[in-house]
Amino acid sequence: MTNVPKAVLYYYPKSVWSAVALLAIEEKGYGPDEIDRKVVDLSKGENYDPTFLRLNPKATVPVLVVPYENSLSEDTESRYKALIETKAIVEFLDKSRSAISRTHTTSDAPAPILSPATIAATTSCTAIIDLLHSEIANPNTLRYVNARDDESLKALAKETTTTLHQRQQALKGYLSDAEKGTIRVSDKVKKLWLEKLDAINLILAVLVDAEKPQAALGEQEKANRLAFFKTARQAWEVNLSDVLTQLSKEMIGPYALGDQFSIADLHLGGWLSRVARLAGATKEDDGSTVVSKLERYIGGGFLLARDFTTEQARRENANAQKLSKLGAFWDALRERPSWKRVYVNSTDDEDTATLNIHSFPPNSRFLFPASAASTPSVSPLPSRSTSPLPQFYPSPHSGSSCPSESESEEPTSPLLLDRAPSRNVTWRAHSRQRSWWSISGHRRQKRTWRLSRVTRRWLRRLVRSPFFPSQPITIVLTLILFSIFAISLTLLLIYVLNPDKEPLPWRAYCSHPSLAPPFNHPLQPNTPHFYPNFTDGRPYPPFPHAELDRLPPAGVFVGVFSVDSAFDRRNLVRTTWASHPRSREGANEGDDGVGTSRTLVRFVLGQPSREWERRVKLEMEMYNDIIILPIAENMNGGKSHTYFSWAAINAWVPPVYTSAAVPPPSFSYSNFTSTPPPLAPHDPFLAWQDINSGSPKPWVRPDYVVKVDDDSFVMLAELEARLRLELHSNPRQDNARQREHAGHGASAAPNTTHHPSAAASLSPGPAAGAFFSPNHRASIGSTTTAHNNNNNQDPLIYWGYLVTNRLHMFMAGELYALSWSLVDWASKDPTVKMLTRGAEDKQTASWMRIHPRASDVRWTSERCWIYDHPRSGTVYAHGFLFPSEVTRVRKAMDAELERAAQQAPLGAGATPTSVLGSGTPAAWGHSSVSTFHARYTPPLPDLSTKHSVEALVEGSDMSLLREGNPMTPDYAWSHREGRRARYEGNRVGGTVVVHYIKKNMWYLETALALLEGEEQSEAERYESSRRTQAQTQTQTNQVVPVPVVPGLGTGLAGQPHPYQRKPVVMDLHGRGH
């Protein structure tokens, strides 16, 4: 048997994951002559030698080279396979020496089976191993950032600088030999060497200055050191504490799966030995001491649960002191012969990993090592929903200098996977702070005892009272009366506290906002700056702007808040407004998707429950459009802040693909780029086209991050057009005018002539210079240098539907957008992190008020084109709205104001008081479709599907049908407006969001009303053909008979021809004339 080829283990004695392979060899009882062992000295860079790279192109250890089974005989040429992943190596060693294996073995030692025997145990085992090999648990990352202050940084530099210099020299030597031609290697190997050398240079840049005090450092060195300490705190105080807590939950005790030692314990033993040593523990310490040292080293009041008692302790003492599961595991592990043989002679005082780097957020300008040369096993994410998901890791494709050794086999979705944690330490710090009521337990007990005594005394007096009911009938009557009183009181409180007691004046919102609150009176001096501000009587600004399509599109990242079980609703979004051409391109001819070429739609979920976890994973793999946040699913418990914090790191959108008349503006974030991530099926066509070109353009930061509820229906082209105009507007003149106006405390009348500067910020041309001018770079690009050096020039825009009442003022939560600078600030500001609980839309408004430049934040409100579904019956509900109906509303409002002006005293004019009287006229909230606080009923029973959807359109003939009306549904349908007429020939200018869509049927109705329909109705086509024939007849002087459309050629009794009927015009009171 001496000539039989043997396996060879390439390892480094002080490597974390090499120790796992050595433990497996010892546990399985392999003989010393069965596996050859060869040391690869990582401290000298031997893992970068071209010979070793042929075995493992990732340059990591351990590596197990094993011969193929059919090449073991002496007369056969031996062939080998290299196992380069720790998990694969351990599984191979476990299976190769068992009762059913045919491996040549000379050892007679016991070979226990280490793999779990049940499905449940296998699931737990996989979850633990995956957690230990995730990036947030990487022990080599902890090794390289094991310094959170200047003193510990000095100690870290003394320990690692020599090794890093040796690796640096080795890499330089390999690169020099490759340049000279002494060794021949591929470009891929050269790239690996350069990336590793860059990583070493970056970490050395911090360590070589460790002896210098802060005052002696330059600005860049200070920034690097601060970023290093921030990363260290993140790794130790947040990531490691999360991992230890999760391990404690997953383990059974004393070993990972109970009393049986398994392969999970091999990985856990090697990992915990390294982490404990880094925290100051020694091999001689018992489990309680090791856990205590870990807790103290992590800090922040972190404590592991003491919820385990050994069987022996329970037998000896029923009240035995409980231990943590990790402490019990350490005690059990120290007694195993395998651990003693692997660790008894190891000093483990030198780092075992090569360097790899991930990028900090752009403002830190520092790269740090995040992965080890010791090979972690590659496997999917943990199958348990409670396991931490690495979705905050910066992708290797988005600014990383080189990929992690194991990332090439990991999923590469930039929305969830391959993300390194960048959560701020303070995110969870408050959860570890000791509550005030736990400071003095004795005082708390005494206070509680007094309260209970007083309560019992008064209850005793109440029961002994002669008026207290004692008979069954009196008890029942008393309970009934008490229930009636409680219900009445509740309803009264709901009515009193509900600010929405009457329908909103949506007609004024769409025509004369200065007549509707809060713009019907001068704003208070401390009121946020609204854009546009209508308190000076400014009319509704024209939209769409004539020069809209000359501006480059805005980058918009839309996050749709969803839950794990809402699969049907997500599919409705994917197949309707997220991908439909009329949503992305607009009405009429559209713009071929140019406007929304930089608009992405993604679904935002908290951590899914176990019941839905697998389905969500499959959905993610299929669509690439789901973001999993590291937070339990909630609505008002911090999900919005977590989403914006995620977006500040991971949100990217496509660049500008097509040239525009106006070049894109330059902001402080304009130069941040990333490799394009995997696309979703509903992503813009131009993005797919660019990806398939073979040389895709890098993606950039979005101009806006939008939060949307999944019961909202969004027209993407409409949303992007409004955000684009706001991005390119110049609010300086308008801002100065608002402040001047607030200082005078006066409000102009609705029909007052506007100051020239009032229109300047909303009109194009050289005089205004707001959007652009012939000298565009002078008007917009003049601050390019300032943008590059100072983000004070970045737009601060808070866009949405403004809700105002006596208690609050905020943008409604169905959809609001924050410009990039606001998102970046909110993700980092410590005060904002304390304002995450409560109604999320109100909390977001509170963030805007505490911004350092709160006076410059533009609260841009869109009240006309954001409303609730007609069937909802809420205060915000009315029929589906189109520009043609709004034009009719404006004309009716103008007529009403003109009548009010004529009736006013001579010279008084039409003021808000003369028009409104004591309140808002009810006619301003009238809808031809819905009624406030009333369930929607169709105008006629038994309408067909197309007729019932048409009846939901505001101002349509179908919505005016009533019993006894001579107009029939077919007649109303044939005389409806086509899409071209409803949009008045424009691409955009209509509904942006329809909210409160609680049923899927309502969702489909909204899709049919806003996305479907013909460009021209039958009546419009008939009139068009008549005009064409009339023109032909005029030219040829021939009489052409008028064609008759079958079924539509005769009108109603006493009415003109059906296609010659005048359209119905609604006045403010809903009367047609």
From TrEMBL:
The keyword Phosphoprotein does not apply. Residues 729-743 have a biased composition (Basic and acidic residues). Keywords: Glycosyltransferase, Golgi apparatus, Membrane, Signal-anchor, Transferase, Transmembrane, Transmembrane helix. Coiled coil: none annotated. Residues 377-405, 756-766 have a biased composition (Low complexity). It is a single-pass type II membrane protein. It is found in: Golgi apparatus membrane. CDD domains: GST_C_family (cd00299), GST_N_family (cd00570). GO terms for molecular function: hexosyltransferase activity. One of its GO terms (biological process) is 4,6-pyruvylated galactose residue biosynthetic process. InterPro entries: Glutathione-S-Trfase_C_sf (IPR036282), Glutathione_S-Trfase_N (IPR004045), Glyco_trans_31 (IPR002659), Thioredoxin-like_sf (IPR036249). Residues 5-101 form the GST N-terminal domain. GO terms for cellular component: Golgi membrane. The chain crosses the membrane at residues 473-497. Residues 377-417, 729-766, 1050-1073 are annotated as: Disordered. PANTHER family: BETA-1,3-N-ACETYLGLUCOSAMINYLTRANSFERASE, GLYCOSYLTRANSFERASE FAMILY 31 PROTEIN. Belongs to the glycosyltransferase 31 family. This is GST N-terminal domain-containing protein.
